[in-house]
Design goal:
Largest sheet: 2 strands, antiparallel
Keywords: Membrane, Transmembrane, Transmembrane helix
CATH architecture: Up-down Bundle
Structural class: mainly alpha
Transmembrane segments: 180-201
Helix content: over 70%
CATH superfamily: f41 fragment of flagellin, N-terminal domain
Shape: rod-shaped
InterPro entries: HlyB_4HB_MCP
Distance between the termini: 18 Å
CATH topology: f41 fragment of flagellin, N-terminal domain
Number of domains: 1
Domain Chemotaxis methyl-accepting receptor HlyB-like 4HB MCP: 3-113
Protein name: Chemotaxis methyl-accepting receptor HlyB-like 4HB MCP domain-containing protein
Number of helices: 4
C-alpha cells in the first residue's frame, strides 16, 4: 500500500513539473510572439512609411530638376533641392537604425551614395542657363540617377513585404505551438485530477477497511 502511494505521489510530482515546464515554455513563446509583432511594426511597417516619405521627396527633387512647374521661381532651386536631400538623408539615418538584412544594407548604401554624390547639385547653371535654356543632357543624367534611386527604394519595399510575411508566418507558428501546449496542459491536469481522486478513493476505502 505504501509503495502505491509513493508511486502516485511520484506521478503527481512529475505531472506538476511538466505543467511548470510547459508554463515556462509558453512564457518564452509569448515573449517571442511579442518580439515578432514589435519587429513587424518597428522594422517593417514604420520602414515602409520611411520609403514612402523618401519617394515623395525624391519626386519633388525630380520636378525641380526637370523644370516641370513653369510658374515656379527657380532662383532658389538649388537650396530647395538641397533641403529635400537633407530631409531624405535624415530619414535614411532613421532607416539605418532599424534591423536591416544584408540586402537592405546594400540597397540603402547605394541609395545614400546617389543622394550624397550624384544628386548633390552645386550650381544652377548645370540645370539651366539663360542663353541655352534647360541643359537636357545634364537633366537626363540626373533623371537616370533618380531612376536608380527609385529602383533601390522599390527593392527595399519588396524586402519589407517579404520580411513582414516571414515574420507573420513565424508568429502564426508560435501561436499554433502555444495552442498545442495549452491542450497538453489540459491533458496533464485531467491526469492529475484522476490520480488525486484515485488516491482519495483508495484512502477512504482503506480507512473503511480498517474501521470494519
Amino acid at each position: 500500500m505504501k509503495r502505491k502511494k509513493i508511486q502516485a505521489l511520484f506521478i503527481i510530482s512529475v505531472l506538476l513539473l511538466l505543467i511548470y515546464a510547459k508554463n515556462l515554455i509558453e512564457r518564452r513563446s509569448f515573449r517571442e510572439i511579442s518580439s515578432t509583432f514589435t519587429e513587424v511594426y518597428n522594422d517593417r511597417l514604420v520602414v515602409e512609411s520611411y520609403i514612402f516619405d523618401i519617394s515623395e521627396r525624391l519626386f519633388q527633387i525630380q520636378k525641380l530638376i526637370d523644370h516641370c512647374n513653369l510658374d515656379y521661381d527657380y532662383s532658389k532651386v538649388i537650396d530647395e533641392i538641397d533641403a529635400q536631400e537633407k530631409e531624405i538623408l535624415a530619414i535614411v539615418e532613421e532607416f539605418e537604425k532599424t534591423k536591416l538584412t544584408d540586402q537592405e544594407s546594400s540597397y540603402l548604401a547605394d541609395f545614400r551614395a546617389i543622394i550624397e554624390n550624384d544628386l548633390a547639385i552645386k550650381s544652377y547653371e548645370l540645370l539651366y542657363t539663360d542663353s541655352s535654356g534647360v541643359n537636357i543632357d545634364q537633366v537626363k543624367l540626373y533623371d537616370n540617377k533618380i531612376s536608380q534611386a527609385r529602383k533601390d527604394l522599390d527593392d527595399l519595399s519588396q524586402i519589407q513585404l517579404a520580411e513582414g510575411d516571414r515574420l507573420i508566418k513565424k508568429a502564426k507558428k508560435l501561436i499554433n505551438r502555444s495552442q498545442i501546449w495549452a491542450q497538453f496542459e489540459v491533458a496533464l491536469l485531467i491526469i492529475l485530477i484522476v490520480v488525486m481522486f484515485w488516491l482519495i478513493f483508495r484512502k477512504s476505502k482503506d480507512t473503511k477497511g480498517v474501521i470494519s
